[in-house]
Specification:
heterodimer, A: 68 residues, mainly beta, Ubiquitin-like (UB roll), 5-stranded mixed sheet, globular, B: 282 residues, alpha/beta, 5-stranded parallel sheet, 3-stranded parallel sheet
Chain lengths: 68, 282
Amino acid sequence: MTPVTLNGEPRELPDGATVETAVRELGAPNDGVAVAVDGEVVPRGEWATTEVRDGQQVEVLRAVQGGR
Amino acid sequence: MLEIAGRSFESRLILGTGGFRNLEVMAEAARESGAELATVAMRRVDPSARGSIVEVLQETGLDILPNTAGCFTAREAVTTAKLAREALGTDWVKLEVIGDDRTLLPDPAELLEAAETLLAEGFTVLPYTSDDPVLARRLEDAGCAAVMPLGSPIGSGMGINNPYNLRLIIEAAEVPVILDAGIGTASDAALAMESGCDGILLASAISRAADPPAMARAMRKAVEAGVEARRAGRIPRRHYARASSPEEGLAELERGERADHAPDGDGAPSAPRAPLAERRSR
């Protein structure tokens, strides 16, 4: 298992897990979502091929109400 | 018509979507406001959250302007803008880099750095800035598509705290000036437009009003009224009255000589007033 921090929570992902695995693990919708790993944006086209490594911080974001 | 980076908007009001009780109230207020552009923030996915703000805004016919609210460094703001571009498919960003927790005033150094980085990456940058005319000029020189000075701190409802600085920014800017933050009620919005702003961004004044859709309607009218008043050209301020009825043909209705009540034109009264204590003792 690969321990990571997913949206601030410690999680165990299966070995070889990718960004796509992490997004699915969260139950995030497919549209309107963006991912950063250790502060670097991972474009959607690279989710399936970007492996998540031990101890990485994965942030999965979407738009919410905000501004003034 | 408000033009930003080649895009035209009929409405000069940009709606922030923060603070609304729910998406239904937000949508109704958005319709009443006439806004065509609305800001959103980027936050962690919450699978239990109901409704999608993106869908609601699209159904209501508003375009989406992501912000970088909550960022305190240039690096955070740049990453947030890139995430918004990924998630929402827009390279427009309402750039905010906050420098102080209590006042939520912008951090000028981080703001300028973030703007330069994002502009180099091809973003259309609309920066939330202080009311410092020099910083506004630096942001414009860097290539920002608009400058968005605050009237007063975010959510404070204090209106325009430094009309002099705002005027300097408006005089110098060749990009749209959009008043961002501080609007409390409709008269603040009208004043911003009368002062020469090209647009305003607000949310709290609407979303936290007792009746948000009604306040949204008031804001729409205030913005329109302010623009028309500015175009119409207001009268100069005077210290004393200027009679609006002709003096010519005035009847003599008291026997004897008419006392000369009025001071000459705009001049000072003929005699200085007596000191307050003396007047009171009369």
